[in-house]
Predict the structure.
Amino acid sequence: MATLPLFEHTPLEDIPAIVNGIRATFRAHKSRPLEYRRVQLRKLYWGLHDNQDIIVEACKRDIGKSSFETHLTELGMVMNDIIYLADNLEKFAKDEPAEDVALANKLFGPKIRKDPLGTVLVIGAYNFPIQLSLGPLIGAISAGCTAVLKPSEAAPNAAAVMQKIIAEHLDPTAYTVIQGAIPETTALLDQRWDKIFYTGSANVGTIIAKKAAETLTPVALELGGKNPAIISKNADPRLAARRLLWNKILNAGQVCVSQNYILIDKEILPAFIKEIKIALKEFYPNGAQNSPDYGKIVNTRQFTRLKKMLDETSGKILLGGTMSEKDLFLEPTVVQVDSLTDSLVVDESFGPLIPVFAVTDLDEAIQIANEVDGTPLAIYPFGNSKETEKVLSQVRSGGAGVNDGCFHLSIPTLPFGGVGGSGTGAYHGRASFETFTHRRSITTTPGWVEGLLAIRYPPYSLAKQKK
Ligand code: NAD
């Protein structure tokens, strides 16, 4: 078994000096040259490449993540994004000429320069500990910022591994990790930042946004959502069952973009339940508990919260329901709910619970989805193209997977983020560069145009006005 570095809280009294050091590096313009950024991105890539074993081991210990899922959803996503950003850095960072400029204004060379925002703070969540921390960090590096990363303390092994990789591979004067929980994050929020990029729950997002507002610091908030899947009567029940089951067993349901509840046409409900039972058996022939592919709930606190949701539901368990606190195991569990005030619907479960609610038609499903959460992080409509288009146009969301689960976030050139209560700002690919970039408008007035400009100076006259 691989030996992992130790997770240790950063002493609170060290935090201001560490942040000042990182800020001084930005002020010295060290992180700005494109070649510097490219080198840092490449070093991080190889740091991840060379430490794959301990990353896999850390994710296994923290949340029982299988090697396959760690490669697919942590290493693969971040390493692909690094390559994409490094390959396109020149293009993204280039000055952009202003669009549709009148001929006379062309004299002033109007353009947009891509300035790094400065020194930024990235706060990560536990469920994809590598991706949600390093994804924003590589955006900051590519934009020319310096950065402090505060990973989630709920995934301490992954946090410690990232600290080791960053310390060994990146410029330590420009990028560093501060470890800790609420006291350390609070101390970080007391420092000056040019942007705070936060991933996590809406409750804590509110704390971050309030604190940032005191200094007018911009924030990107990647929050949770009560994402609906909407299955119309014309959907293929087998496809819907397999795809939505996968969307909930990934990371044992601890995924911000998994569906929180399913609204399904009552005509198709029996076929869907039959198919989801078949799919579960197919995915885990010896049961989820015995499968090396199925993760665990991150800690006892989250396990107890999920158990309480199941204990208190008035719905009927149709599939699953087995759990073991000792192993933090919770079986994928389908519950038919009969009340829209059931906490399985109105609260984000963030676990492998799959509530289904039968509706009479698509209009009812759309109405319910809008009432539960008008701006979820994602929606998943299943049906024919007319039906899925209707859902897309009548239910807002950060992103959407039509006839699937969270496929949209795996496309590197699609910005990923929420809307309204599910967050503000986006990243991945070019959006990661842009979220840490200031688009600075610039004109340059040549000396020789002074004659033409004379018209703007007083004394004003009617004759000048008519010109
Ligand atoms: P969390 O809000 O508990 O923690 C996130 C981060 O905030 C951690 O680094 C933590 O140390 C810090 N934090 C916690 N309490 C704090 C406080 N009082 N003051 C300052 N900082 C504090 O979230 P989590 O449990 O790690 O993640 C689960 C939530 O995150 C879910 O709601 C999920 O939907 C959401 N999420 C969103 C995305 C996305 O991309 N939109 C991705 C993953 C998770």
Q: What stands out?
A: The CA atoms of residues 243 and 444 lie 55 Å apart. The first strand starts at residue 96 and ends at 97.
